[in-house]
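S.,

Sequence below, as promised.
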Amino acid sequence: MMKKMMMTSSMLALSLGLLPGAVFAQDAASGANTAWILTSTALVLFMTLPGLALFYGGLVRSKNVLSVLMQCFAIAGFASILWLVAGYSLAFGEGNAWIGDLSKVMLGGVGRETLSGDIPESLFMLFQMTFAIITPALIIGGFAERMKFSAMLLFTVFWLFLVYVPVTHWVWGGGWLGQMGLYDFAGGTVVHITAGVAALVAAVVLGPRRGFPETPMPPHNMTMTVTGAGMLWVGWFGFNGGSALAANGDAAMAMLVTHISAAAGAMLWMGMEWLKFGKPSALGAVTGMVAGLGTITPASGFVGPGGALIIGLLAGFVCFNATLYIKRVLKIDDSLDVFPVHGVGGILGTLMAGVFSSTSLGVFSGYGYADGIESMGGQFTVQFIGVVATVVFTAVVTFVILKVVGAMVGLRVSEEQEIEGLDIVLHEERGYDIR
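The prediction came back faster than expected:
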């Protein structure tokens, strides 16, 4: 009996000795961090489906609601495949200062035990995929109710590879902006500035909807919009908190400042609307909330609660006035206010990250490395360069993409089709079938 037990123990020891790689991989990976990023990934996807889909769907007219839902859904599928095939590799492969390489095409070389930091690389890739989904989906709001479905799909392919992927590499993939020390914790430049600028360019190139600005085009279902906005607010905890890539104090602080900025943006926008028009609206409250969320995004890992409060209030004030200016003065039909909310918010938040990350601002101090006025100015200069580079690059390349897609399939539905509504014209379906 004793001899059998000794043989069994020897076999067990030998088995463990033959598996050092597996034991090492398990020890190197953090279960807590992996669990948090798994959760964050689900939250960010939840922001697009159903959050953004419902938020945008309620804002358009009833004859176009299904087309917006369909665009969000199709982008989620299409962008996922593109990210797997080559997007992730070009964004996060080593490459050079401008673009990654093709070493991770189809996740080549990435297995179950491959790590990115202390989480599985497959999970890191999936987390980043959800960002690659929501960014082109945000642009939908700039050309809602008038772009062909085929044109939207082609635009998404070109834009993802020619705008989103390069900027992602510049900032997060080891590119030149990251090397300069740009602060962009969760996507002020990568997500919000690129999407906002692209939406503005698309709105200008396609032209306004028929009847704009004389014909009122109010949201058809505010209940749907508020529901979607609530989902965005909750999902944003994964967006910003997950960008810490760890279950730690950085993630907790990012979530806290995200919530504060959203609340401040919502209340400031609602108050300004109340003063200017005599009544507060649900639309104003949820739009201010989204402005607060988008503006805090680049700064969420670098600022404290005091800085977040100021950033949220600035978001409500600046984005509110930008919305009025774009529509009433410039008369640009950015249908769902993507540029004044996300673009302007992303620019503002990226610049403010260089200010409120300073450790010399008392209760408004952040957690960056800008200690003192001189170093703060240096960080602000880096932030400014990042903003200008992202705006100019996105605007030029988006314009070229739209012209190419227009030459290939045409960008816009006909006037008759726009009057009838995109739900029936493009999909032979209705969002509502009331008999």
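The chain has 16 helices and two strands.

Coffee later?
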